[in-house]
Amino acid sequence: MSHKSAKDFFAPLAVGAPAPLREIPARPSRAIHFFDPSNEKMAAKVPGMIGTVDVLLGNLEDAIKADNKVAAREGLVKIAESTDFGPTQLWTRINSLDSPWVLDDLTTLVPAIGDKLDVIMVPKVQGAEDIQYVDRLLAQLEAKADLDRPILVHAILETARGVANVEEICGASPRMQGLSLGPADLAADRKMKTTRVGGGHPGYLVRQDPPKDELGVSRIEAPRATYQQDLWHYTIAKMVDACAMHGIYPYYGPFGDIADVVACEDQFRNAFLLGCVGTWSLHPKQIAIANKVFSPSVEDIAHARRVVAAMGDGTGAVMIDGKMEDDASLKQCLVLVELAEKLAE
Ligand code: GLV
Ligand code: MG
Q1: For residue 190, how far is its CA from the centre of ligand 1 (angstroms)?
Q2: Rg (Cα) of the chain, in Å, rounded?
Q3: How far apart are the CA of 166 and the centre of ligand 2, in A?
Q4: Ligand 1 geometric centre to CA of 320 (Å)
Q5: Given the CA of residue 186, which atom of ligand 1 is nearest to it?
Q6: Are 102 and 69 in contact (CB under 8 A)?
Q7: Whose CA is nearest to atom 3 of ligand 1?
Q8: What is the per-residue burial (b if ≥16 Cβ within 10 Å, else e) of 149-165?
């Protein structure tokens, strides 16, 4: 049997070396649906979800009780070995790098089901060194298991230090597939005063200016509209820029208020408009929301195709429905057309 060397996968990048821009697998991942592999009832539903969701993720980290960590790991191995995932990707979220479980997660999963795992999500990533550690370990385990396809890595942005280091995290390894926002851990780490898992907050708002009376005095007691702001705008925008710079994918993350499907859709749409390609799903009903929101609408695709057709060789400017379109808006339209084509494949 010919064994691959760890070097055949990915040599760790020299410190400070720019990461190569590369094509990462373009399979869609609008919804990353989390399941608890230690929960037999939940695990039994996994085969029935294949084909209805882009990614199924066996969660080993937070939300899995300490006493169930081994059962979750073993449950994931069992499901992966006995299931053909077809068009659906299989991901896992391993325990954090400072936990007592992570080494066993990696040394168990890669030899057992490394051929089935598409992406490993690494939580609480603080800097490039965390990714380089996982990259190196994966290369060794993959070589030992004689795997011929490298497992990709996805980092969760959920510490203040991680946000500060987001660009180096994205470029830390050619395995980097993408980043997700982890709003709950990030809020705690930053000492934000919200107890919600993602989403907005009614206290984070701006208020309309007060009306003035006939003497020009502001009537601050008058009723005034308030506008809720997005707590996560800054971090998502920063994450999207870092991902675009390194050619990897940005994702929203968890939206914990499962019952509020309307606010969930709004939050997902904000992320889509800002550049994210997908999000997490914590309940089957969030899959449908994500599939809808992270696919361009029929109207947007039709408009984008009209602009592409009207722009001919791609230079100059044209007027469509009273609006100016040029080389730059053509590029915007191509983003939507290319996404629609990828999703239709
Ligand atoms: C997800 O892991 C989060 O902390 O929000
Ligand atoms: Mg977290």
Answers
A1: 13
A2: 22
A3: 16
A4: 43
A5: 4
A6: no
A7: 182
A8: ebbbbbbbbbbeebbeb
ipTM: 0.99
Q: What is the pLDDT of residues 34-57, one digit of tens each?
A: 999 999 999 999 999 999 999 999
pTM of the model: 0.93
Determine the atom of ligand 1 nearest the C-alpha atom of 62: 2
DSSP states of 236-275 as a string?
Answer: HHHHHHHHHHHT-EEE------TT-HHHHHHHHHHHHHHT
Q: Which residues of 95-105 are buried (b: 16+ CB within 10 A; e: fewer)?
A: bbbebebbebb
Give me ligand 1 centre to Cα 156, in Å. Answer: 8
Tens digits of residue pLDDT in 129-159: 999 999 999 999 999 999 989 999 999 999 9
Looking at residues 160-176, what average pLDDT do you find? 97
The protein residue whose alpha carbon is closest to atom 1 in ligand 1 is 182
**What is the rounded average pLDDT of the residues 79-108?**
97
On whether the CB atoms of residues 72 and 38 are closer than 8 A, the answer is yes
When pLDDT is cut at 50, 70 and 90, the band that residue 75 belongs to is very high
Structure tokens at 55: 């990614």
Cβ atoms of 89 and 29 closer than 8 Å: yes
Which runs of consecutive H residues, i.e. helices, occur in the chain?
A: 6-9, 40-49, 69-82, 102-113, 128-144, 160-164, 166-170, 183-190, 233-246, 261-274, 284-293, 298-310, 327-344
Neighbours of 319 (CB within 10 A): 9
* Spatial CB neighbours of 43, under 8 Å, sequence gap ≥ 6: 35, 36, 37, 75, 78, 79
How far is Cα 151 from Cα 64, in angstroms, rounded to an integer? 23
Q: Which atom of ligand 1 is nearest to the CA of 181?
A: 5
- Three-class SS state of 343: helix
Q: Which helix (H) or strand (E) holds 34?
A: strand 31-35
